[in-house]
Amino acid sequence: MSAYGPPPPAAAPRGLDLAATQPTPLVRLVQVELRKAVDTLASFWLVAAIAILIVIVEGGLLLIVLIEGSESSAGDYAFFASYITAVVLPVLAIMLVTSEWTQRTAMVTFSLEPRRSRVLLAKYLTGIVLTLVAVVTAVVIGLVCAVICQVVQSDQTSFDLGGAFLGGFLITQVLAMSLGFAIACLLLNTPASIVVFVAYRVIPVSVFAVLAANFETFADIRPWIDFEFAQGPLYDLSVSGIEWGYLVTSGLLWLGVPLALGVIRILRAEVK
Amino acid sequence: MITVEHLSRRYGTFTAVDDVSFACRPGRVTGFLGPNGAGKTTTMRILVGLTAASTGSATIGGHRYADIPNPGRHVGVLLDAGAQHGGRTGREILTLGALSMGLPKSRVEEMLHLVSLTGDESTRRLRNYSLGMKQRLGIAHALLGDPEVLILDEPANGLDPAGIRWMRGLLKGYADRGGTVLLSSHLLNEVELIADEMILIGHGRIVAQGDKKSLLASNQQTKSATTTVASLDDERLAGALHQRGIAVTRGPDGITAQCESVDVGRVAAEHQIVLTDLRSVEGGLEDLFLELTSGTQREGSPYGAPGGSPPPPPPPGQPGQYPGAPR
User: Fold this and answer.
1) In 3D, which of B9, B113, B7 has the Cα closest to residue B57?
2) pTM for this structure?
């Protein structure tokens, strides 16, 4: 090909023998992503801060309940623990995606697994695993606190965890995590994603409420496009009939569209 | 092993890689040499699928990179030693790589030992690494999966002379065992030391390729010979050379003559002039490199024509003129 110097050597006949190599299993990719989610200083302090916050809140709650001798159940304690983790889970999901770009590790990640959709799937599954871990942790904390109350004041203590609540919490948390994941894929920047995520959850709700209060016609449309509103019945797992329709349409609009655009962006992006 | 055919990458109207074709053979270290922004990195990124090609193809062992299962086991890649999480330790970075490729943890220790990162250094966070340490870690990461092919972008950048010598030994040994190495650099000295073959690239186009000897030989053919000479009577010698029709320039330390050294010696013998110094001037690789790559940077270069054949190199010594160019 070159006009200068000798012609380049002909393409080597020897190729790569790929027969013995198995593709990287998805489980292994999830293992790697789980490890990456907690092995940096930033993620360590995030988790540590949550642990400290939970200890303070649950400890204070226990103290008040025991001093006043009031009634309590395992579900009460689990609720507070899960409420605290709920703030952090979407942030962890956001960082799963954005840290690859802000720290430029995407170059290595996509070199080791060039099928980017599998990396994204592994990251999403990691987010779900982390959500499950949070719910299980909340349950364990709730039970431990209930045991302590049981020892001191067995009459006022119940071990009722509020199963419907925990199930609803798990589902809405997965949705919140998915939303953080979608916004992160779309923006690929940690602070921007967190800001947009918070705005996303606060601003549409109030705008819709104001609109619905002032325009009667909008009040009819609102359930179909208000994702927060549609998730209401999910919290106690009482979704029924038309409410499923609300969930699907508003979910597609607020979660499906950004997720699709974000995934397309990452699949096509030039990784720098 | 690495085959790149008619590869181009355009960003809008800017062409970063322009109809590039080359091949890298097993058992050889191929140096990819060019000034900054010449298209080396873009070509390597296309090779590993991080950037999409506009046209053309790039394959490794006959496969597109994206089609290689668990590619870390076949192709070791180091594109940017700094592109790792600053909050992770060197050991953690290698552990993640080993985990991802399905390798035992012992492999991490082996690689740390291979690149001479001590136990203490391996537990430091990457943001506290020097550039040289990052490069060593990057090499260790590339070699983790015991690949048959290595693709390294500026691997010697930031290494001290001893580090460059170490890398030369490492890559030579790797190639001698049948490995294929493609490494890039903007520094000729590095590539000259490490590579068996060279690909010179300037402004997205390959301007020359081959081993060092043949590159120099082809340069000599097209270049008119130059000789510097000093004698006890420079004035008489210059006059005598001039009479023979040889172009001469007088300098403070002697004469520069546009001919072979043997011609100067013959003239001196005929006129019985005592020579004190006589040597032929050889254009080194550096001259060649600068000539070839500067030629492609000139505006109005006819090489920019799309779909054309690879560029004819500018004849050295005649800046600004190209064969086939409108004169």
Assistant:
1) B7
2) 0.82
